Prior knowledge:
With 114 residues, the chain is mainly alpha-helical. The protein has 3 helices and no strands.
Amino acid sequence: MLFKLSRLIYFTSAASICITNICFNSSKLLAQTNNQNNPQLGCLSGYPDGTFRGDRAMTRYEFAAALAACLNQVEQNIPNQTNGLAPKSDLENLVQRQQKLNQELQELNNRVKD
């Protein structure tokens, strides 16, 4: 091996900490309840009996059920989230400008090649 083992251990430890924090923060966001002050998804609530059971791994079935609940919640929230979105006319205008810019760039590219 061309690298020192201590550097490898340090790197893998840092990577696992980073990944753990990302996963923890993401699952924490999904698990928070939905209220006016905290507009989170609130789709992970534990087991039907109200327990969490964090001392064991989830089964594939449990993960699929939790994911389905979250996706259903997201699908329900999508139509309600139209505040602050650009109108369709702005999108069409942006697409037209992008096409025009692409044509001009192609013409410029052809001139540079010649």
